[in-house]
Design brief:
This protein is α+β, with helices and mostly antiparallel strands. The protein has three domains: 92 residues; 108 residues, Beta Barrel (Butyryl-CoA Dehydrogenase, subunit A, domain 2), CATH 2.40.110; 154 residues, Butyryl-CoA Dehydrogenase, subunit A, domain 3 (Up-down Bundle). It is built from 13 helices and nine strands. The strands form three sheets. It has a four-stranded antiparallel beta sheet with strand order 2-3-7-6, with no helix packed on it. A hairpin with a 2-residue loop joins β2 and β3. α8 packs antiparallel against α9. The two termini are 30 Å apart. It binds flavin-adenine dinucleotide. The site of flavin-adenine dinucleotide has 17 residues, from β3 and α13.
Length: 394
């Protein structure tokens, strides 16, 4: 893969940089810079801004409304949007269900859903996990029973991110008990305003409420909303999980940006007559992290190139996800450490919005939220199992 950049790549970088300077809204920029995640409205706003520029789907092929960019261009785009403190694009519609719809969906499904993912009008949530089915996802019990030209869906989903903000859900359901448990699972596309759906958000330790429980009580879903074939949901779901893991790899560039912010803060922080940035202990931790972040960025870029070329990337998505989650946790920990006493204000104010300046509460929120990255999309123990089986043959 070519890593050196030619004239066209440099011109492209310049174009993205100029676009970001003129188009990232200040409120979003400030929030992202402080370490806070964008709100659902903020994510939608940024998606729509990109859509209007024709950049709604950097990784999709042109025929489905994507940019058709090369891996190097995608990487440049990620670097420049991160450097401009733009939020990442929200991935559940764009990167998870969108590609499954354009690969396996019917013509009607493509026409109905893809344009609204691109424009940011539709927000999709991922209804996979259940109270007794997280790591052991194949044990899911939410049931869909065929009734004429509908499925009737009953069960409960748990940990469904942003279901309270979503108008659509892609949902794994059990349609048969007669075969191997993986083969009795199907993937349904659901409207969140369908009668029988109740969403209950709950708080997490980062003092946000982005996860929910979703209760499904005899929800009638048109059979035309089945994605692909009945009983094939497990294989589509696995493609999707692999993609989710691989995606975290592009976030390596965001780690690099966070380290820049840590450096900036350290330069302003007094320490023993100089600045914290000059402290050898601090510099050593920072340098180690920078080296590891650079390595994961390159690894992510290589994987991106293989994905675009259709090369099987095996368990590399798991390796990247595992590594990224560990680095994110260390980077945000160093950020909070650099804040020193100011970092504790988040807890003393109970994280109540507006009580602590965002530049002090943001890093702590980011640090606390980073704990989740070693759980969602398959916990790190599960990733290690996958690597042991698929890479080491154990
Ligand atoms: C903030 C957050 C957001 C999430 N968002 C979504 C979402 O949008 N949609 C969705 O469907 N799900 C979502 N999830 C759910 C997530 O995918 C699950 O939490 C995860 O898969 C773990 O499942 P579990 O919570 O049931 O834990 P369990 O599977 O019960 O695991 C408990 C512990 O046992 C370990 N363990 C389990 N099995 C093994 C094994 N075979 N070998 C070694 N160790 C093992 C796990 O690593 C973990 O430490 C989210 C979770 C969180 C915390």
């Amino acid at each position: 893969m070519r890593l050196d950049q030619n004239e066209a790549d440099r011109a492209f970088r310049h174009e993205v940089r100029r676009f970001c300077e003129q188009n990232v809204p200040d409120a979003l920029r400030e929030r992202v810079r402080s370490g806070m995640r964008a709100t659902p409205d903020g994510f939608r706003q940024w998606q729509n801004i990109l859509f209007r520029q024709g950049w709604g789907a950097p990784t999709w092929p042109r025929e489905h409304g994507g940019t058709g960019w090369s891996p190097v261009q995608i990487h440049i785009f990620e670097q420049e949007t991160a450097a401009a403190d733009a939020p990442p694009q929200f991935h559940q519609g764009l990167e998870l269900i969108g590609p499954i719809i354009f690969t396996y969906g019917t013509a009607e499904q493509k026409a109905r859903y893809l344009p609204r993912i691109l424009s940011g009008e539709d927000w999709w949530c991922q209804g996979y996990s259940e109270p007794q089915a997280g790591s052991d996802l194949a044990g899911l019990r939410t049931r869909a029973v065929r009734d004429g030209d509908h499925y009737v869906v009953t069960g409960q989903k748990l940990w469904t991110s942003y279901a309270h903000a979503a108008n659509r859900m892609f949902c794994l359901v059990r349609t048969s008990d007669e075969t191997r448990k993986q083969d009795g699972i199907s993937l349904l596309l659901m409207d969140m305003d369908a009668p029988g759906i109740t969403v209950r958000p709950f708080h997490t330790l980062d003092e946000q409420s982005h996860v929910t429980e979703v209760f499904l009580d005899a929800v009638r879903v048109p059979a035309s909303q089945l994605l692909g074939e009945e009983g094939r949901g497990w294989s589509y779901g696995k493609v999707l999980l692999d993609r989710e893991r691989a995606l975290t790899a592009t976030l390596g560039v965001r780690l690099a940006r966070q380290l820049e912010q840590v450096k900036e803060l350290a330069r302003k922080t007094p320490d023993a007559g100089s600045s914290l940035y000059q402290n050898p202990g601090f510099r050593s931790k920072l340098a180690q992290l920078e080296i590891e972040v650079q390595a994961i960025e390159q690894m992510g870029l290589r994987m991106l190139a293989d994905n675009v070329a259709g090369v099987d990337t095996g368990p590399r998505g798991s390796m990247l996800k595992l590594r990224w989650s560990e680095l994110l946790q260390r980077a945000t920990e160093l950020w909070v450490e650099t804040l020193g006493y100011d970092g504790t204000r988040f807890a003393s104010a109970g994280g109540a919005p507006g009580t602590v300046p965002m530049e002090q509460s943001g890093p702590m929120t980011a640090y606390l939220h980073s704990r989740v990255t070693s759980i969602y999309g398959g916990s790190n123990e599960i990733q290690r199992n996958i690597i042991a089986r698929r890479a080491l043959g154990l």
